[in-house]
Amino acid sequence: MRVRLLAEEGAAETPIALNELDRELPGDWRVTWYRGVLALATGQADEAVSLFDACLSMLPGETAPKLALAFALECAGKPAASWYDVVWRTDRSYVSAAFGLARSGRMSVLDEVPATSVYRVAAQVALAASVVRRPDVAALRPSDLVAAAERVAGQTALDPRRRDLLTAEVLGGALTWLETSPPPKDLRLADAPFTEQGLRRRLESLFRRLAVAAESRQERHALIDRANAVRPRTWL
């Protein structure tokens, strides 16, 4: 446990502690594992790849070394999706593998995170956010934005403030989309008409609601400024 904590912190004395442990437990896979942890903690991703690969050779039937190797490969800027895929197909309790696949571009895999998982909400939030955080928002379909808003609204376990912020992000993405496309007919987004006026009114109301519950004066003023900036133009 001591070596584990030292390795996770990347402490300077970790190599000495690891060598002592290696002498006490020769051939123990945990020594190699914690050397890999230390390599990751100190930014030596290539070294971590070699160490976790060695761990996998020592424990060929175990899932954890495969996941560790995948993460080390990702940190080293090398292809890791195949290892994440092996882990995810083997055991759906390793949700980190699903997020690893999502980072490699397979966002849809997050929908496979079991409803019983504590990471289900995080997976759904990541899916919704990915829609409007992509660089080519203009290439989206209106239905993509509506689905993202509905996904956020459906997360009853999500903190209300976080839900409002995410909904505001989706609405902001929809406004960006409207800059290059005409409003879709008879479509609503987050309880608002999918028009510039409708989305701006909804965004304004969200920012003002968030401002009421702001934790600081600076945050409240910033949210009010955002509400004023997005407010639809009127004659009044």
From TrEMBL:
InterPro entries the record matches: PknG_TPR (IPR031636), TPR-like_helical_dom_sf (IPR011990)
Residue stretches making up the Protein kinase G tetratricopeptide repeat containing domain: 2-234
Pfam families with a match to the protein in the record: PknG_TPR
Protein name from the UniProt record: Protein kinase G tetratricopeptide repeat containing domain-containing protein
